[in-house]
Structures are given as C-alpha cells and as structure tokens.
Amino acid sequence: MKKENWEEAKSKIDNFGGGVSPSSIDYDSFLNDPLFVKETKGLSLKADDFARYLPLLSSFQEALHEEGIYRYYLKRNEGGGLEISIGPRAEILRAANLEVGFLYRDFPDEWLNRKLIRTKNIQRLLGLLKATNTEEKKRFLYLYGDDNGGKSFASAYFLMKRVENGAKAAFLETNRRFDELKSLAINDKKEFEKRMNELFEVPYLVLDNFGDEFKSDYVRDQITMPLITTRSRKNLMTIFTSNYPLEVIENLYTFNNASSFIARRLVSAVRQTLYTEEEIPSSLVSSL
After folding, report:
1. CB atoms within 10 A of CB 197
2. Hey, which end of the chain has fewer CB within 10 Å, N or C?
C-alpha cells in the first residue's frame, strides 16, 4: 500500500462525521440506496443510530459510491457504537493473492476472470476436485481424456479459489516445466534443487498435460519419480490432467526391459495416493 494513498484514505476516515447537519439528512435516501442497505444489513440499524450517527452514515454512504482501490466498512465497536474502517476492495485483494499465490501459473490470463459455466463436465470435475481436497489420505486426482473436456480449466479454477483465500499453488504445463527442470539439473544444480523443493512442498499442484513431457531415464528418475513419491508421502493434493490413462503412462515410461520395473513403480506411486482416476469425455463448449 503506497503511503500517500493510505494517508489520503486515512484522512477521509478522520473527517467522517463532520460538517453535516442532522436536519439536512433525507432518511429515504438511505432506505432507497440498495448498496447502503446491503452494506448495513447485518448491523440492524435503529432510529437511535441514525439520530446519533447521521453525519457518519451520510459520509459512509457517499464513500460507498466512490471508485478507488480501497473501500470503507461500517461496523459496531465493543461498546455497540458505529465506526468505520478501511481496507482494499475484494477485487484488489483477489488480484494481489493471485499475483503472489502461484509459484507457476501456466494457464491463460483470460482464465483469471472467466465466468464459470457449469456444464455437465465442469460440475462433475468440480465435484471430484472438492472430494479429493477433503480426503485425508488419498489426495491425488488423475483426470484423462481427449481435449476440450474442461480438465485444465476446472483444475485452474479450483486452484484459483484456493489461492484467493491465501493458499499457495502451482499449475505446471508439464512438458515445458519438466524441460526447464532437466536443463537446470544439468546447468544449475542449486536452482534445480530449489525449484524441486518448492514443488515438493506447495500445497496444491496441477501437472497439466501429464504424459506429454519428454521422457527419458533421467527425467523419470530425477524429476517425475521424486516429485510423485515425495508428494505422495507428504499427502499433498496433486492433480494430473492427461490425454492418457495411467496404464498408457506406464508404457510411455517403459523404454526397454530394464526400465519396465521402474515405470511400474512410478504408476504405482500415483495409485498409492490416488482418490480416483476418471475419464473425462470431450465436450466442445465455447465458454471453455
């Protein structure tokens, strides 16, 4: 919060209640103002409140209709009187949380403000995501199917709601980010370990388009396997979206006879903490 903005807002609070004559107040102007009625609904304002706090209520009503990054709140203090406080507007706070809450946000900016269309697929996906989040021990969710089923959007929406409330999350485009991690593992071991540790600890993780990443013994053993096994052990919510079921993932990570055992271990590590593996049909909906 910039000091000059805070001082300006603070001075407005300090001046609330001054210079307004009670006799000049039109009571109907309060009752016919939907925004004022909404913001004071829980205060159960009575005639005595208007008689005592007319200047303050008038100033508060005026402030409600002003634009800016701050908004004003009317509340009762411990003695039952009315007072005004200031805070950032909800949309400003939301934007700030979204800015700092994602370690990685590999989905389009337009999704940040896209209205949720509750199609059949989206309803089903949100139900699965919420159910997985409330699980105590099985907190992996594997969603697969053709494109345009809403898997990525629903997962991003779910993460945004967590981040808006102050949680940390990461939404990774798996192919791009695993390639970055592989490069760091070779060229900057310290940064590689830092980023892996962040992914080990972040409360919510989406591995989007899982299975499309470049596959090698190195990627499997240094990135994919440690990430999955560590998050499984820590019981952290991990969401996979993919075009492939898990049995195909096992085949994709099998490069020869020697690697087949490790590929089975990788998929078993996912299934060990898996709430469910669900196929999501394609649903070509323009809003998604």
Report:
1. 11
2. N
Indicate if the pLDDT at residue 50 is higher than 50: yes
Q: Half-sphere exposure of residue 229, counting CA atoms within 13 Å on the CB side?
A: 13
Whether residue 220 has pLDDT greater than 80: yes
For residue 60, the one-letter residue type is: F
Domain with CATH 3.40.50.300 in the chain: 93-279
Cα separation, 137 vs 26, in Å, equals 60
Q: Is the dihedral of CA 120, 113, 199, 183 positive or negative?
A: positive
Under CATH, to which class is 93-279 assigned? alpha beta
Q: Which two tokens stand for residue 271?
A: 């299934």
Structural contact between residues 185 and 223, judged by C-beta atoms closer than 8 angstroms: yes
Which candidate, 243, 240, 231, places its Cα nearest to that of 272?
A: 231
> Which amino acid is it at 248?
V
* Whole-number Å distance between alpha carbons of 64 and 79: 24
152 three-class SS: helix
- Torsion (CA) 225, 230, 233, 235 in degrees, nearest 10: -110
For strand 102-105 and strand 169-173, is the pairing parallel, antiparallel, or unpaired? parallel
